[in-house]
Amino acid sequence: MTKLDPQKDYYAILELTPEADTETLKRAYRELARRHHPDSGSGDVEAFRLVQEAYDVLRDTALRRAYDRQRGRRGRDAEGPINWTMTLSRETLPALATQQMLYALVEIVSTAKETAGRQPLNLALVVDRSNSMRGIRMENVKLAALDLLDYLEPGDRLAMIAFNDRAEVLIPSTLASDKRNLRSPITSLVAGGGTEIYQGLLAGIEQVRRFGNAHKVNHVILLTDGRTYGDEERSLQEVQRATTSGIGVSAMGIGEDWNDFFLDNLAQRGGGISSYIQSPSQIRQMLRDHLQGLGSLLARDLKFVTNLTDYVQVQAVHRVLPHMEHLGTPQHNTIAVGRLEADQPIALLLDLLVEHNEVGRRRLARFELEGMLLKGDKPLRLRHDLEVTFAHSPQESPVPPRILNHLSRLSVYRLQERAWLALESGDAKQATSLLNVAATRLFDMGYRDLAQAALLEAGRMAQGAAPSSGGRKKLRYGTRALSIPTHTEPAQTEGVEHDR
Amino acid sequence: MTDKGSKVICPSCGAENLPGTLFCVQCGTYLPSGGPLRTEPLVEQAERRKEAGGKGDGDTAGKALSIEAEIINTGRKVLLSAEWEILAGRLDAAHGIFPELDMTADGGLEHGVSRRHARIYTRDGACFVEDLDSTNGTFLNNERLTSYLPFRFRNGDVLMLGTLQVKIHIYTGGN
Q1: Pairing of β B76-81 and β A96-110
Q2: Would you tell me how many other CB atoms lie within 10 Å of the CB of residue A146?
Q3: How does strand B86-89 pair with strand B76-81?
Q4: A386 and A463 in one domain?
Q5: pTM above 0.95, yes or no
């Protein structure tokens, strides 16, 4: 008996549209069945099974009708598991001969009601085994890696690479069902030597590539606690190359000595996340959370494309969810946004410079969202026209609170980011004043810890000292996480509910 | 017209900002001259957005819930989209609090409404309210809610934030 699963997008699996007729269906099935047949060179049992299931349902008129009906009930937009909306700070603008500011909040969300079964993972864990990892850090990494084994399902794959000045493949990519063979190399890992990230990354990407395919979550996770010297550029290029072949890269920094700007850049290009692990005991939790996110991946390689008219310029693009990050500079009209996880919406905030002095409704830009849906390896393309009305003296209307909430937090994040930039260009005075302002805003908002950290760093700079790397990381990773106005965070309510 | 085109001067650091700027580019201060100091969308606006939602190809599909809050003592009605979480409270720009349901104008302070008082959200078509450990509490049909615990409410229920009563109407679908 054929079973029918309305969670699965059978049309996408067969690379068809819901309008496809029986003839097209048959052809698509033959083509794909041949491609995925386990006896063929590029065989993939799981993909083959899915194709078979999809065909069995769709070729039966009664089943197909039942399937269409069930899919249809899940919302009109059943073909797209991803939706996006755009909110503007103003819908009506005064017609001005000068430039004015307009903010656009772009929100990308999953519309799937329930998370369909998780995609198989194809992972490589790239672990820094340099001298500085010795002791509690290495022990915690081992625990985290063993923990990860429990999370993996039989169809998942894991490779593990340990690197210092060179890389060693501790575990070549292995099916997770083979847990015994995975366990012992992890427990016998010892630290020693220097840190050279490139070698490790290269080996990790290589292992993932070997068994990579479009239906899996292909991902490399780098765990390091040190600085790499001289191979940054090569590492970035390698990650860029990996991204184009569907392999993502995330980076986790342990302790305080690693280069946060480098790892952020690496993860941004890799479409993954970068995280700051303050204490070794957090490694386990962070890795587990990360895995959970990867398991619920919906789309990869998301790109935000802007087609602008002469009336508008993009001044800056920031990500505000899941965490804050500067994404694009004006000269790029394609901005990499990374991946979308089912329970983790993405939000972008655009600063737009508008200049137009004629009354009427105008299209300012056409925005597109491109990417690859994991399910069925189908391309995603959404389009949105940015239109506003210009009037002579429009009535002022309130700004949507969502925009204000995001902007107020983003403005703090930007203040401290500008401080580090100012410092880098040698302007310690400017950096100090920016951090002081950031501290004031953080105090106001009730984030006392972060405010204190900002003051401390400002104090150091005022005296001509370099910022402490721990302080900088605490501030950067702390403020970028402010993007989620968590209602349950005690620091918030404590600082704010003092009325009455 | 010339007036609208002039730059916005930051009251805190004196920096010049382009018209329409909401937070000073220099110091991050909220610039109230960017708009009147209230946050709620006007009813007409919410309606218009709903209409617009129908034709844009990337827009929300299916059943959009909207919630109308009727503040009983002032008779003011606010239509809110339940597509996103709704924060109920009082606006405080310096603290970065911009509630979707802002009760400043309804005597919120006098009635003991906290700045971040409660949140309202929908899950699978049902509506929930959760008290955010407000000073004077949130009540649903006269029963005080445990903080940080979501409670389901229905069309016609009365919420009380501090001593401010709010009657809730729930509308389903775009019609």
Answers
A1: unpaired
A2: 15
A3: unpaired
A4: no
A5: no
**What residues of B are in contact with residue A500 (Cβ under 8 Å)?**
112, 135-136
Min distance B71 CA to chain A CA atoms (Å): 19
For residue B145, list chain A residues with Cβ-Cβ distance below 8 A: none
pLDDT, tens digit, for every residue of A37-82? Answer: 887 777 788 888 888 888 888 888 878 887 777 665 443 344 568 8
ipTM confidence: 0.71
A104 and A173 inside one domain: no
Q: Residue A45 is part of which domain span?
A: 10-73
Q: Say whether both A340 and A483 belong to one domain.
A: no
Query: Cβ atoms within 10 A of the Cβ of A460, count?
Result: 17
Contact A404 B22 (CB under 8 A): yes
Give 3-state DSSP helix, strand, coil % of chain A, rounded to 5.
Answer: 40, 30, 30
User: Six-digit token pair at B127?
Assistant: 């509506």
A302 falls within a domain: yes
| Residue numbers in B near A446 (CB within 8 A) | 95
Phi, psi of A18 (to 5 degrees): -60, -15
**Could you give the number of structural domains in chain A?**
4
DSSP string, A96-141: EEEEEEEEEEEEEEE--SS--SPPPEEEEEEEE-SGGGTTHHHHHH
Residue ranges in chain B assigned as alpha helix (H): 43-55
Measure the CA–CA gap between A198 and A239, rounded to whole angstroms. 10
33-92 in B: which are within 8 Å (CB) of A? 34-36, 38-42, 45, 48, 53, 56-62, 83-84, 87, 92
Q: Which domains does chain B have, with CATH numbers?
A: 1-35 (no CATH), 43-171 (2.60.200.20)
